[in-house]
Design brief:
18% helix; alpha+beta; disordered N terminus; 165 residues; seven-stranded mixed beta sheet
Amino acid sequence: MPMNKARTFTLAVLGAVAACSPMAADAGQKATQSAAPTTHPVSGLPVIPLTIAPAGKPHAFRVEVARTEPEQARGLMFRTEMGADEGMIFPMSPPRDAAFWMKNTVIPLDIVFIAPDHRIANIAANAVPYSLAPIPSAGEVMGVLELNGGRAAQLGIKAGDRVDW
């Protein structure tokens, strides 16, 4: 979650706490396979396409959008699984320094910090479930993307890659 001041830190922590949540085993597959789901079956959040182009080869994801403070505070908290090409995006306007944590996050996550130029600033790979340690961005970001832990490495996603949504 984004951390600006003490209040923002608390909200950020709550938002960051929102890492992964439980979903029916086939729900993630159905959301990924269906033509264009507009809302996620578990969170009720809007689902949009997001593309990352590692080595110039675009990879498509379907991500939930956590826009409001309450949505960001909840994030992916308590989920026990997520589809391979699913995730959650936390848009930040205006761009700012951000930090997340893994409180109440059941599964490991890759936390991808996206700079204002749509390039990945840094990735916190395989963030440890339930950890209270803050995980900071490397500068101001316009968004933070949470993916399944290890997914970024599996796809060759790294700092400098372009992210579009």
